[in-house]
Amino acid sequence: MGAGGSLFSEKKEYLAYPALGLISFLLFLGLLPYLGFLLGGIPFFAALMVISGERRPLWIAFFSIVIPVTLFFLFREGFLILLPQGEILD
Q1: Cα separation of 5 and 85, whole Å?
Q2: What is the pTM for the complete model shown?
Q3: How far apart (Å, rounded) are the C-alpha atoms in residues 77 and 60?
Q4: In a domain? residue 88
Q5: Would 74 be classed as within a structural domain?
């Protein structure tokens, strides 16, 4: 290590992105029983894409819908695991 160097030399502004990702994940988990995986997953994946730096709205809209739907049917049909459907859809 150089003079004055620290083991944790990351700048604090770089911690905002992981913190926002963690906050959006915790919000997703909190809303999961009410919204279900499909309705809660769409804004969650859209938020993750925006946090990751994606700025094209059509890509965000397309993939934030395709990813949860694909995962939902993969788990339901492929693995025979039912993901939460939420109180709104009941």
Answers
A1: 50
A2: 0.80
A3: 26
A4: no
A5: yes
